[in-house]
Design brief:
Strand content: 15-25%
Helix content: 25-40%
Largest sheet: 4 strands, mixed
Radius of gyration: 20 Å
Oligomer: single chain
Shape: globular
Structural class: alpha+beta
Number of helices: 8
Strand order of the largest sheet: 1-2-4-3
Amino acid sequence: MDAMNRRDNRNGDISEREVREVLQRTADERDSPDETKEQATYRASVAQTKVPIYGNLRVKQKEDDALRFFSTNVNGLSFWQRRNYKVERLKDVLQRYSIDSMGFQEVCINWRSFKPSQTLASLLRSGADPIRSVASHNTREIKNVGHTQRGGTATLVTNQLAAYVIKNGTDPTGLGRWSWYLLEGEPGVRTYVITAYALCGNDSCGESTVFQQHERLIQEQGLKTNPKAMFLKDGSGGHRRTESS
């Protein structure tokens, strides 16, 4: 994101020079005398962590049997059809890299204030390619809420994946913490595509924040938990409970 914010043409691919500049700035910040002991320990632990690598970075070459999944925290979208920079950038990424599914956190749209036909899929549609979306937001709090509402997620499927959808759903509590699609290819072979937003914050956050939205539900229902613990507990199989309900 740092490289994107510094460039003039935000729709083009990042050049090797820009990557080198970002890496150099990161190295300078790392070597800064202001780095704390905790930061240094964390950096060393990340450097030593080994994780499996799947696929490759040749984004312009996609195998016929490959599927591409993309996830991003958009920090708010606007439902404007024109001069909508974020939407235009997402449409470009979707087409340029042949993305099959996109997951969005913090969409920040109160979908109740729009028509049923006004969906994320309609906003990102290009041509006649099949595209579907399911979005979650806080449906419990509807008073004094305009077009914008903090939090929310959306899951989008397109191309061949759109034909395999058999079910979709959202967070059953109405808090908008996740959205999902259930896909089935071969009979009995099913895959969930889930987009979830793990909230941050604490009791000092403002009233409109996601943390306080969840805190109000906890207080209303007299639950002995906190928003983060509730997310972890409910998120484990929450989509399956929705499906069976």
